[in-house]
Write a structure and sequence with these properties.
This protein is mainly β. It is built from no helices and eleven strands. The strands form two sheets. Strands 2, 4, 5, 6, 9, 10 and 11 form a seven-stranded mixed beta sheet that branches. Strands 1-3-8-7 form a four-stranded antiparallel beta sheet, with no helix packed on it.
């Protein structure tokens, strides 16, 4: 059983920065991709960024490209999302998720952490 726990959310002014962390636990944890998603009130959950767990390839939504950076520490089973130049439209609950096997989709999810950006 995989457990994902996010932390690092909070309230920040527009233009500020936050760093989210995701701790993965579970016997023999491994993943193909891990990713960050977000959901704002009244909106569908959307993709933010992902990282290929083994090789470190990264992928970003156009809306965050150049402002957010995804990274991971395989040895610690940790994933991070560095968010800079935050905008009010970045306000959402941010979730980390794991695609354990290639092509099977993100099936393991954390409980989410709230990010609020004030104007």
């Amino acid at each position: 059983q995989v457990q994902l726990v996010e932390s690092g959310g909070g309230l920040v002014q527009a233009g500020g920065s936050l760093r989210l962390s995701c701790a993965a636990s579970g016997r023999g944890f491994s993943a193909y991709h891990m990713g960050w998603f977000r959901q704002a009130p009244g909106y569908e959950r959307e993709f933010v960024a992902a990282i290929r767990w083994s090789f470190g390839f990264t992928y970003y939504a156009d809306s965050v490209k150049g402002r957010f950076t995804i990274s991971r520490d395989n040895a610690k089973n940790m994933m991070y999302l560095e968010m800079n130049s935050l905008k009010p439209e970045d306000t959402a609950v941010y979730y980390c998720a794991a695609e354990r096997i290639a092509g099977t989709g993100y099936k393991d999810w954390g409980q989410g952490t709230q990010v609020t950006v004030s104007s």
